[in-house]
Structure formats: C-alpha cells, structure tokens
Amino acid sequence: MLKPGTPTNFSADSMAHAIEQAMIAYEVFDPADDTDEAVEQRRKALAAIATGIVNHLKAALEITVAQNKIAAGLPAAAVQLRGQDGAVQ
C-alpha cells in the first residue's frame, strides 16, 4: 500500500520519509543544520509532493490481467482495473 505520509505522521514507511532520506543521501541538505521550522516546512512540502504522487498513481493506474481459459477453443479474456474508475485504492 502506498502511504504518502503527513507532516504530523512522518512515519518511516511513508513516501515522504523515503524522499527525505534520499535527499539526505544525495546531500541536498544536512539535517544537523536544520532549525525546527525548516524541518516542519520541508516535511510539509514532502508530504504534499508524496500525496500528489500517490493520488496521481491511484487515478492513472491501469492494470490488465489476462485470464486464460482451460477449455480448448475459448479465447483468453482480460480484466482491466482502472484507478479512475475506483478499482484501485
């Protein structure tokens, strides 16, 4: 399950936290130099970005699953799950 995270729930399994950790690894910023206000503002921005990504993926995701028929002569069928139809949550 995709979890974007929020500024108040910046859990280790959230996308926002993963983005923050990648930014630290790439030395975009040094957390040791951060003020409390800088951390709060950055986490708000990261949570907003992660929420936008998750919402976009949910809306745009389309999965097609082929179902093969066992009986000879029957064509294969496909089931399509589309986020924009509410099938992906």
Structural features, described:
With 89 residues, the chain is of the alpha+beta class. Helices cover 40% and strands 13% of the residues. The chain contains two helices and two strands, in the order ααββ. The chain has helices at 15-25, 36-60; strands at 62-67, 77-82. Strands 1-2 form a two-stranded antiparallel sheet. α1 (15-25) crosses α2. The longest helix is centred in the middle third of the chain and has 25 residues, at 36-60. The chain starts with 14 loop residues before the first helix and ends in a 7-residue tail after the last strand. The model has no long low-confidence stretch (mean pLDDT 86).
C-alpha Rg (nearest Å): 20 Å
Helical proportion, percent range: 40-55%
* Largest sheet, strands/sense/barrel: 2 strands, antiparallel
Oligomer: single chain
Shape: elongated
Mean pLDDT: 86
Structural class by SSE content: alpha+beta
**What is the number of beta strands?**
2
